[in-house]
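[AMINO ACID CHAIN]
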Amino acid sequence: MLSRSLNQLHQNPQYHGFYMEERGPQINHLSFADDIIIFTSGRRQSLKLIMHTLATYERTSGQLINKTKSHFFLHSNAFRTTCDRIRKYTGFQQKEAPISYLGCPLFFGRSKNIFFSDIINKVVNKITGWQSKMLSYGGKATLVKYVLQSLPIHILSAITPPSTIIMQIQ
């Protein structure tokens, strides 16, 4: 229902979406289960239309948008007035890069080591938890083979990390 309503915004002449490039497709949103990323130009009227769509969704579905968990993300070259306008119309706070969506860091430009800190932390936390257990060499090998190898697979299939990150994981 929400996805369909957001897609219908493209038919409204007052709505200005987000373009990757001038002749490219207009990207509106990405959604999976209850996580959603909405792309917009940041123009006043577009923000009003998006917030109206979200309010309509809240009324009809009975589900509320959690504004404390909702954020917006801008390019570092964006004007301060754009940031202020988005904050005013949405009530959301700005978040700096990298942001995470479905466990993957989202960023633009070259990947940096800090973007993969969550992967490193997960691996370190798993190993630290195992150290307190009396495991045989075979038990440790099995845990590494099946548990640690499965952690970063979906992230690493989408993003090529710097070689230093690969060495840290190994």
About this structure: Strands lie at 18-19, 26-27, 29-32, 35-38, 71-72, 93-94, 99-101, 104-106.
